[in-house]
Amino acid sequence: MAAKDTKDTTAKYTVPGLEVADGHRVAEILQMRLHALNDLALTLKHAHWNVVGPNFIAVHEMLDPQVDVVRGFVDETAERVATMGLSPKGTPGAITSERTWEDYSLGRADTLTHISALDKVYDGVIADHRNAIEEAGKLDPMAEDLLVGQTRELELFQWFLRSFLSNASGELKHKN
After folding, report:
1. Average of per-residue pLDDT across 50-75
2. pLDDT at residue 174, rounded to an integer
3. Cα 31 → chain centroid
4. Phi, psi torsion values for 19, nearest 5 degrees
5. Residue 144, H or E segment
6. Largest CA distance in the chain
7. pLDDT of 23-59, one tens digit each?
8. Torsion sign over Cα 166, 169, 171, 176
9. Burial of 170 (0-12, 13-18, 19+ CB in 10 A)
10. What DSSP string runs through 80-136?
11. Distance from chain centroid for Cα 38
12. 11 or 72: which leads in pLDDT
């Protein structure tokens, strides 16, 4: 077991062109997105392992590329936090103690049940990313750009999920 780290993890710098306080505020915004993205990657992998029933293989195989892209988002977000002068936190304890959302509650379940639940997870992640875009964009266009690109991909993934849940009229039919 690792020793508890009690050192101050805040650098006395940020990126050129930003005040230290502004850079650190951007890093704090990104830290919450880092928690959400780490949580999303784990949740997608959990669903990948636990999905059963009709369309199993389609959903199982659809989720892995999403996991890979979200893991890439985790890395780029953590590196931006570090660039801004804060120490990114990626531990399970940090995620669970600082997050503002409930844990994914499904275990083994059929494809439509998981897809319905994941659609709601994406609703929260995307809405929070959009709020972070607005706040970070006032301070740092690079962080804003990072979040805009991630949001575009997250919305595309959500569309993939919603293709299983929508009818020809475009209505979403969640299973819950």
Report:
1. 95
2. 85
3. 11
4. -70, 150
5. helix 141-165
6. 57
7. 999 999 999 999 999 999 999 999 999 999 989 999 9
8. negative
9. exposed
10. HHHHTTB-----HHHHHHH--SPPP---SEEHHHHHHHHHHHHHHHHHHHHHHHHHH
11. 6
12. 72
* Nearest Cα residue to 59 out of 69, 49, 72: 49
Q: At residue 9, does pLDDT exceed 70?
A: no
Per the listing, tokens 């780490």 go with 38
The one-letter amino acid code at 87 reads S
The CA distances from residue 83 to 24, 65, 76, 117, 134, in Å, are: 10, 27, 10, 34, 20
Q: Which two tokens stand for residue 87?
A: 């120490």
Residue 22's SS3 state is helix
**DSSP secondary structure string for all residues of 34-52:** HHHHHHHHHHHHHHHHHEE
> pTM, whole model, 2 decimals?
0.93
